[in-house]
Specification:
Radius of gyration: 24 Å
Largest sheet: none
Strand content: under 5%
Shape: elongated
Distance between the termini: 63 Å
Number of helices: 12
Helix content: 55-70%
Number of strands: 0
Length: 344
């Protein structure tokens, strides 16, 4: 018998997923467009030179994540989340290829080796990585991760991610139990979930599957819509920041005078102290949105380590918030000045 799986088993109204996804997609696109418009407020800066060098850096730092992996715990949880979601997103696309283009991705050896075994292993890795991140943020609580704001946006994202992964495995486990899938062992995550669901009646399992399937879809759509407005925006902006990074030697200082305007960097034309947000380049503004709030800059800051209330992390977050408030017309500060606060 050729191994196979029905794409939308027990979901006869699955075509409703498209009109359901539309408002979430609109929110995502609007958020991305708003971000680009924020960056365009900055001064011009040429960052297209040496494209192959930039691409190599994007692969090593963005895809392979060599720099993040220098820290064992944080590196492993981040890599598990990143690659887990990359593989899971690819699997979702494969299901669509099977259903709408007739490409056989849910049958034969490819289904067993990739769509079942590899996808489940990466899904489990993402779930473990999420649990590690929650434990680190809620229990270990390293000083550099403590939020200088009352709200913790990353905790909301971690809970949402955890629920997406859990409902996905419930969908798979319920299907395995209800259909008595003979290839269940090839899906370790689904097999473990199915073992926990043994003893339920067939009707209960089918109902659980349907509720979990739609909950999984809505949660995933909410994640997509929330992405441009949350800290997880860095999954899009960090790769851009890496690609458009400065290729100058590390530690090289910029000139004190802006060659284009003749004004001194860090001052306005009237000589008043301060820096208007429009005096940053578009790359500087992109970098504000690319900040992951990991706190590594704060952890190695001599001023912070000496007890001075000067947080590089807090400074970047203040600048980013100011940029977004200015864009939305809600800034409580001057229309012309960024207030660089000493503390977080």
């Amino acid at each position: 018998m050729i191994p196979f799986r029905e794409a939308y088993w027990n979901i006869p109204a699955h075509t409703l997923i498209y009109p359901l996804f539309l408002p979430f997609l609109v929110a995502f696109v609007w958020g991305c467009v708003s971000a680009v418009r924020r960056w365009r407020r900055g001064r011009p800066d040429v960052r297209w030179d040496r494209p192959w060098t930039r691409l190599a850096g994007l692969v090593s730092q963005g895809a392979v994540q060599l720099r993040i992996l220098r820290e064992t715990y944080a590196g492993m949880l981040h890599a598990s989340l990143f690659w887990g979601f990359v593989v899971l997103f690819g699997a979702t696309c494969m299901v669509m290829l099977e259903e709408y283009l007739g490409i056989p991705t849910l049958r034969g050896p490819f289904y067993l080796y990739f769509m079942s075994l590899i996808v489940d292993l990466f899904g489990l890795a993402a779930l473990i990585g999420t649990a590690m991140a929650i434990f680190r943020r809620w229990v270990l609580r390293p000083a550099r991760l403590r939020e200088p704001r009352k709200s913790d946006r990353y905790s909301v994202l971690l809970v949402l991610t955890f629920l997406i992964l859990v409902t996905g495995f419930i969908v798979e486990g319920a299907r395995i139990v209800a259909t008595r899938d003979p290839w269940a062992a090839w899906s370790p995550g689904g097999w473990l979930t199915a073992a926990a669901l043994q003893g339920m009646t067939l009707g209960s399992v089918e109902t659980l599957h349907a509720y979990a399937w739609w909950s999984h879809a809505v949660l995933a759509f909410a994640f997509v819509a929330y992405l441009p407005f949350s800290g997880i925006l860095h999954v899009l902006t960090a790769p851009l920041s890496i690609f458009f990074r400065s290729l100058q030697p590390l530690g090289k200082l910029m000139g004190a005078t802006d060659a284009a305007t003749g004004t001194v960097a860090g001052t306005q034309d009237d000589g008043a102290s301060g820096l208007a947000i429009e005096q940053f380049t578009w790359k500087h503004l992109l970098d504000l949105d690319a900040c992951t709030e990991c706190g590594r800059c704060q952890a190695v800051c001599p001023a912070w380590q000496s007890g001075v209330a000067l947080s590089p992390k807090g400074l970047i977050m203040d600048l980013r918030d100011h940029l977004r408030e200015r864009r939305n017309g809600r800034s409580q500060e001057s229309d012309h000045w960024v207030i660089l606060k000493a503390g977080p």
